[in-house]
Amino acid sequence: MEKSITAYNESLSGEDSAICERLRHEIDRNLNNAESKIWHGHPVWFIDGNPIVGYSKLKDSIRLLFWSGQSFEVDGLKPEGKFKAAEVRYTGVDQIDRTELKRWLEKSIRIQWDYKNIVKRKGKLERLI
Known about the structure:
The longest helix has 17 residues, at 14-30. The chain has three helices and six strands, in the order ααββββββα. By secondary structure, it is of the alpha+beta class.
């Protein structure tokens, strides 16, 4: 387990910490070959150096972000930003649907856009998988 992610989760209060611990457990369980670390201030999981999923504390919720989520073609995720990311926000641990989360995580392995090389490609994304 990545100790800096533990510290991040423990720095949050009550329900936010519980949400993050549940997300971390489910992500680690379903992306067991992914590297995890604190990146740009919040926990992110990578496959071959490419960001896949992460979560962060917002003012009123915890945001779970899938970098390639707009390409998943599933309900429950909302587009975020100008690239291919999609998100869901949680205010209670009971809102996390483990079956749905597992489906999204499986798609995050099969559907990836190359964020790792976005700067090299001057902001142009290419599909990896």
